[in-house]
Amino acid sequence: MKSGKLIVLTGPSGVGKGTLVRSLLNRHPKLYLSVSVTTREPREGEIEAQHYYFVSRSRFEQMVEAGDLAEWAQFAGNFYGTPYFGLKQGIGEGKWVILEIELEGARQIRNNFPEALRIFILPPSWEELERRLRSRGQDSETAIARRLVRAKEEIEAAGEFDFQVVNDDLEVALKKLESILNLVELSGN
Ligand code: ADP
Ligand code: 5GP
């Protein structure tokens, strides 16, 4: 996997990872998003193979058994994982592959691919994180509560990452991410 660049983007649910990644992908054709497999039900408007590969629990377990996943984790009652075929495809196309994943998966990637660049996205405040989770209007109160519990644990681990970016003003956060990626290019890591 050394031939390509692997970029891990982590941060609490609702912090704006998906929003940031979509903007980055629109602006930089060099970037490629690894589409994850999940057992979560699709949200309204989510498209198969674009947002996720939506699979049953038994299919997910089969993929784990077969060694098809580069990492996987349980999050708020569902399973999520990164299929190797996405990584291979992106790297085969000479692109920089972005994994938008939670903390446990990011730790597995650090162990398996130590060369990966790991970035943690922070909210400007706890109140704003809660507001964003609710304003998305896509998760039940139970799902939001589970995500907030997990968010506390994740934020405490932000220091494990190579870079921390606060997503307050979206444009400022995007610029910071772009500058981090350029720095990596310049240093040839
Ligand atoms: P995540 O992928 O981290 O769960 P999303 O990208 O779905 O988060 O964003 C959660 C909500 O916050 C969405 O409604 C999104 O429009 C909003 N959001 C994202 N970034 C910002 C920002 N910088 N300022 C205000 N709202 C934002
Ligand atoms: P959501 O249900 O909001 O789409 O995602 C919940 C959490 O799962 C988010 O923190 C998201 O980054 C994470 N996630 C999405 N795909 C993967 C994956 O393939 N592996 C891991 N470990 N986490 C993922």
Overview of the structural elements:
This protein is of the alpha/beta class. It is 44% helix and 23% strand. It has helices at residues 17-27, 57-65, 84-92, 103-112, 126-135, 141-156, 170-187, and strands at 5-10, 31-33, 36-38, 52-54, 69-75, 78-83, 96-100, 117-122, 163-166. The model has no long low-confidence stretch (mean pLDDT 92). Guanosine-5'-monophosphate binds next to β5, β6 and α4.
What are its keywords?
189 residues, alpha/beta, Rossmann fold, five-stranded parallel beta sheet, four-stranded mixed beta sheet, 44% helix, binds adenosine-5'-diphosphate, binds guanosine-5'-monophosphate, GK/Ca_channel_bsu, P-loop_NTPase, ATP binding
Report the sheet-strand fraction. 15-25%
| Helix count, DSSP H or I runs of 4 or more residues | 7
- Measured on Cα atoms, how large is the radius of gyration? 16 Å
Give the oligomeric state: single chain
Gross morphology is globular
CATH H-level superfamily: P-loop containing nucleotide triphosphate hydrolases
* SSE arrangement, N to C: EHEEEHEEHEHEHHEH
Q: What is the architecture at the second tier of CATH?
A: 3-Layer(aba) Sandwich
Tell me which ligands are bound: adenosine-5'-diphosphate, guanosine-5'-monophosphate
Strand order of the largest sheet: 2-7-1-8-9
Unreliable sequence segments: none
Question: What is the residue-mean pLDDT, rounded to a whole number?
Answer: 92
SS-based structural class? alpha/beta
Question: Could you give the count of β-strands?
Answer: 9
Q: What distance separates the N and C termini?
A: 13 Å
How much helical structure, as a percent, in the residues?
40-55%
The main sheet comes to:
5 strands, parallel
> According to CATH, what is the class?
Alpha Beta
What's the structural domain tally? 1
**CATH topology value:** Rossmann fold
